[in-house]
Amino acid sequence: MNKDFEKQYKYIWKTKTSRDVKYKQTSSEYCTKFVTELEKTRQVYNVDTIKDLPEKISGVYLIYSFKKDKTLKFSYIGESINILQRWKTHIYNFKKENKESSKFRKKEKKLENLRFLVLSEIEDQNLRLKKETYYIYALRSKFTNTNTKLANRKMRCENGHGVKRTFLTYHKDKPYFEMYIYGTCRNKICDNKFLIN
Question: Which branch of life, at top level (predicted)?
Fold first, then answer.
């Protein structure tokens, strides 16, 4: 086992899961860069322009906002069979200041600062749920991300069973450092372990 890889993994894990302020800058810089790179390859919408998104696009989406210094204020990853309708629901909840929007409003007070983008267009629900989990792990941060769960209970293993848990790891026997997200089946007989990407 490569000791440097183990150190890298532990540092990344801490950056994604710790509330310790010593990881805050690294976490914020990484998440800001990740979202900024996404903006280069995807259409960014705001509250006024979401109407330009075609109806009935299924997939995974990101809602976020930036601070004045262009660092990420918050991020939220979701999935839907109809992204436009889901975005409208998020906006409605934000305007009504109800419980469903409280996690957004704790981070962002102004509706006009919200940004929306489609991460991936995916019809199949299980593939959507896997891709949603992938992006939640990618943007996982105790300082900016507002997702409360890593994986949706509706996600299934390759054999159609429910998922017991998901986890971030790396391959210890590869000559280079590369991280992966896996899911494990809750069915004890199946015990399927599958890659989430």
Answer: Bacteria
Written as one letter, the residue type at 188 is K
- CB of 136 closer than 8 Å to CB of 77: yes
Residue-wise pLDDT for 161-189, tens only, equals 999 999 999 988 888 999 999 999 999 89
CA angle 107/112/117 to nearest 5° reads 80
The two beta strands, 72-80 and 59-66, are antiparallel
d(CA 152, CA 162): 10
- What residues contact 194, with CB distance under 8 A and at least 6 apart? 157, 158, 182, 183, 184, 185
Helix, strand or coil, per DSSP, at residue 85: helix
Q: Which two tokens stand for residue 50?
A: 């979401």
CB 117, CB 78: distance < 8 Å: no
* Spans of all domains in the chain: 3-196
pTM, to two decimals = 0.94
Nearest to residue 151, comparing CAs of 74, 65, 60? 60
**Confidence (pLDDT) at 1:** 54
Cα-flanking dihedrals φ and ψ of residue 59, to 5°? 160, -155
